[in-house]
Amino acid sequence: MVGAPPRSAGSILLILLAFVFAGIALLAPLALIFSFALREGLGAYFAAIFEPGTLHAIFLTVVTAIIVVPINMFVGAALAWLVTRFTFRGQQLLVAVIELPAAISPIVAGVVYLFLYGNQGLLGPILQPLGLQIMFTPLAIVLVSLFVTAPYVARELIPLMRQQGTEDEEAALSLGANGWQMFWHVTLPNIRWGLVYGAVLTNARVMGEFGAVSVVSGSIRGQTNTLPLQINLLFNDFNIAGSFAAASTLALIAVVTLLIKSSLEANVRG
């Protein structure tokens, strides 16, 4: 077996620079967050985490992600299937519409929802007599989170499915598989990692979204504050330890998400 060629000094330098920049950009901020969060001791840290407002913000953030991620996985996979497996009028327009939420500022998206569902908005006067309140509720957070994260799964799957082509699916159909069997046994295994990557990106955006959520939630303490809003609220209240404790929780959730993804990849490859 022929060994790998020795690395040149230039390649070693580039690798070292990559590690240095990764440390500066990723590890240093994480270390700073945890150092500030823990500087008053573990007791104060856990007291800040279990403070009712922060605990509710964690709960609301996680519940929002649990609702939004599966919906966008399903919708994103369906849109990618439609765009890559069929030819129809308006196909490019549909692709542009899929990309639209990524091109709009989150603040603008929040304002649009406010003008649409607010009491003085387009649909607000219709919903109000029915007793339906959307703005400044957790439902508004879910709706705007669905909008801002809508492109992520489809953007991962569309180029992947175009590159893979339709040969495997056509072979499955020729062997007598129905549409569901073809999707479950052929299409899904081929796109599973694109689907996972899209879900991870969606989850990260839901967890960290601030602009759109701040507009539609009203930032009501203990009711409609997600973790990013709670961090901002605590920081503005000069509760530095509490804000960094909440920020460390958000960072931990992101790290755990990445570890789960890496573990799934390792199990499949193994």
Structural write-up:
The protein is mainly α. The protein has two domains: 7-38; 41-269, MetI-like (MetI-like fold), CATH 1.10.3720. The protein has 13 helices and no strands. It has helices at residues 9-38, 42-49, 52-85, 91-103, 106-117, 124-127, 138-149, 151-164, 167-174, 179-208, 211-217, 227-236, 240-269. α3 (52-85) packs antiparallel against α10 (179-208), α5 (106-117) packs parallel to α11 (211-217) and α7 runs antiparallel to α11 (211-217). It is globular.
Hey, roughly how much beta strand do the residues contain? under 5%
Q: Any idea how many domains?
A: 2
Rounded radius of gyration (Å): 23 Å
Name of the CATH class of the largest domain: Mainly Alpha
| Low-confidence runs of at least 5 consecutive residues | none
**CATH architecture annotation name of the largest domain:** Orthogonal Bundle
Fraction in helix: over 70%
Structural category? mainly alpha
Shape field: globular
CATH-defined topology of the largest domain: MetI-like fold
Number of helices: 13
Strand segment tally? 0
The CATH superfamily of the largest domain is identified as MetI-like
What is the typical, i.e. mean, pLDDT? 88
Distance between the termini: 22 Å
| N-to-C SSE string, H for helix and E for strand | HHHHHHHHHHHHH
Q: For the report, how would you describe the main beta sheet?
A: none
